[in-house]
Amino acid sequence: MVGARWLESGGGGRTTLMKDDGGDKGQCPRWLEQSPPWTDGALAVCINESLGDDELRAVLSKVEHDKDKEVFGLVCKRWLHLQSTERRKLCARAGPHMLKRIAARFTRLHELDLSQSVSRSFYPGVTDSDLSVIATAFTSLRILNLQNCKGITDIGIAAIGSRISSLQSLDVSYSRKLTDKGLSSVAQGCPNLRVLHLAGCKFVTDALLRALSKNCSNIEDLGFQGCTKLTDSGITVLVAGCQRLKHLDINKCSNIGDVGVTSVAKACSSSLKTLKLLDCYKVGDESILSLAKYCRNLETLIIGGCRDISDEAVKSLASSCHGNLKNLRMDWCLNVSDTSLDCIFSACRELEVLDVGCCEEVTDSAFQGIGK
Fold first, then answer.
1. Domain range for 15
2. What single DSSP character describes residue 361?
């Protein structure tokens, strides 16, 4: 019929198409009396009844954005259940008994972020009991962020290491109760570990570095900021077994000096891209010269506060790493002068960030030709 149109009517979890071809005012619309032509007089089929779980999962797999996936789960309880079981990534604030509920709902997580679970006086945030739930429920987990989870101890982290062999990334920065004992369990039980961040874990020693060297040869990203008990000896052992390191953060590791950095430069010469040595007071020219000699792919170097570094070492670095160096921080390098900057500006054409704050020997003249 000319002018006919099909309207969508939803209710009670059903979706039905109905025909509207107008009609006189005051009269019952004809679409109330007619069914769509393809139903042959029967009620239109609800999408919930016509599609099985596998088909709905196929639909969900085509949804790219997380917010759209959330909308998918708002249709009805069945769709919410499917959306939950298919979810791979979750960021949550854990509260009392919350992890058990999360484990019951999200059964196939690959990534779990609990770093926002701030401790309170009446609740310690994430605890060892929570880690036990995670270790039991999420055996296929790949990425776990427990940053600032101050309530966890070696007992909980050992449970993670013993049960989640698939783990590839672990961040326990500022979880200050952790020691070598619990973290070594992770090294032994998670051979596929690629990323480990331990900033602020002040009880970590060279013993953990030996465990990583022995068990985690594929590790690429290590963060040890503020782990002041680490020494040159431990770093040397570490890189003997972990030669694929791309990113190494040993900021404020005050007991690491030229011997340790030189061993890193030699062992990880082709892979190393980022090295952070902020306030490593024992680092001097020997470290920089070894980086210049071996690490031509270096992109980021942080040497702020390393006050024994001279112009000659910086010039050698700029000449050798000029093709890739993008970020160079040298604040408080008191021996660096205009001579270093002249070489950096002429050689390092890919440089994006340069910090020379509080370098007292640097003058205005060093920047006069920077735009040429």
1. 5-47
2. B
